[in-house]
Amino acid sequence: MGEILVEAGVLADAQLRAALAEQRRWGGPLGRILVDMKLISEDAMVAALSHQLNFPSVNLDQVKIDRSVLDLIPGELAEQFGVIPFASQSKFLDVAMADPTNLGVIDELRIRTRLNVRPYLAGPKSIERALARYYGRGVPSEPHVTMPSAPVHGRGDADDKARRGGTGSVPAIKVGSGTGPATAIDPPAAVVLQSAPRDYSKEIQALQERVQRLEALIARDEDVLRKLLALFIEKGLFSREEILERIK
Asked: For residue 68, what are the contacts with CB-CB under 8 A and spacing of at least 6?
C-alpha cells in the first residue's frame, strides 16, 4: 500500500518511512496509521488506491444500508475483519473493505454467506464509523459534537437581561388568571442541569485490547532476543558471562 501511494505521488518516501516506523512500534493497519498521523487524507488515500489497484470505492457516510444486508454478516465478524456489507443483489454481496486485496477475508466471507463477494475500497475511519452506526461496535472515529444554540439576533444586552430578570438570575414566575393581578413566585435558589453519564466501557475495552497487543509484541521481541543470544553463544561469538556483563 505504501509503495502504491508513493508511486501515485500522494505520499513522500520520508512520510512512508515514518508511518512504517510507527507501525512497527505500535502495530495496526498502515492505512489507518497514515490517516491518524495526518500524512494523507482518507479521501485522497482511497482515491489513489482505487485508481492504482483498479478497485471501485464506496463512501459509507453517504450510503443508507438496509438491515437485511447488514444481517448477512454478524457484527462481531464485521468488526474482526473490518468490513461493512452495503448492498446485495441476486447471488452477489458488495462489501466495503480497507484492503480489498485480502483474498483470505473475501474467501471467508464467501464461505459464510454463500454469496459471491464483491470487494469495494473504503477508508478505515469511514468503516469504523459505519461499524459504530450500524452494528453498535467499536468507538466512532469522528464523534458528532452538538454545538450550543446561537443567540437570538436583533436583541441587545438590555433585552437579554430583561428576559433573564435584569441581573442574569432566573426570573420570577408570575401566576395569575389573566384578569387579576399576577402573583410572583420566586424561583429555586439554583437550577442545576445534569447530563446523562457517559458510558466509557467501549473506550476502556479498546484501550485494553491495545495494551494486550503491545504486550504480545513485547513478548515476541523478548523471545526473538533470547533466541538470538543463544545463537551467539552457540556459535562462540560471545560467552554467557560476557553477555551478562554487558547487560548489567
From this structure: 88
